Amino acid sequence: KGDLAGAGADFSRAIELNPKGTAGYESRASVRSGQGDWDGAIADYTRGIALDPADRKMFAGRAFAKVEKEDYSGAILDFNRVIALDPKSAPAYDGRGLARFKLGDYRGAIADCTKAMEGNPTNHAACLRRGLAKEKLGDLEGAVADFDRAIQGAPNDSSAWNVRGWVKYLKKDFDGAIYDAGRAIRLDPNSGAAYGTRAWARYGNGDIPGAVEDFRRAVGLLPPGSADFLLDRGMLAFIGQEYAQALSSWELAGSKDPTISPELHAWIARARATVEAKARSEAWAAQGSRSPHLPY
To answer: How do residues 183-199 score in pLDDT, each as one tens digit?
Structure first.
């Protein structure tokens, strides 16, 4: 950090000496990005663009800084400018694909990831992202094909094994999901997501003790409050017949991630139906009547 601070000071002096040159702004923006000062970086890229509106590197740098700030719409506008200036820029298609994915434009993300891979066939991130976008659109076979390709290119990437395992779970290939999640865990023993994937698959296979063990590991490793954490915590509650808690966790997960698989919406419906049935039974009991939902 000390080196970056010194470099930033040097580039600031260079800008004072030559305020109409773009090199100083670009270099200082790079330093600021390295420090996580995305606002400062964006400001410097913007100054550079004002001096040279045809500098695609400035637009690209600003676009990636906007991605870091989660300004995905703004990032797309800048990536559009990069592509207009350089229609073969694989990094620009890759970045725009990421921004589109984050905004839920999965078809646009697939198109951009495909273009990025045309320019760089070994683009592992674009391949994974395209597979994830296909999964969101329900193209599970296409997703698995992309994850197969990603794993072939980077067999030690835990996340690639895990996402393929999750799609296999959605395809009801529980044994395949357990295998892939297990590979992910061996590569990264602290992958809460992989433990969660294996837990769902073990539950699907009828291995309830194994599922509970994995769900507990997942909840202990995942960021508290994240959608995955809430989904897995909800399933632990569901298995323990704590249906109201399961419903609460799953509904909160849905508010955090509206793209949750329809498979999981079915679990939410089951929990809600059980909670409502219990409430009706308790109401009948309170009135002193025999409830059709309770065995007494």
So the answer is: 999 999 999 999 999 99
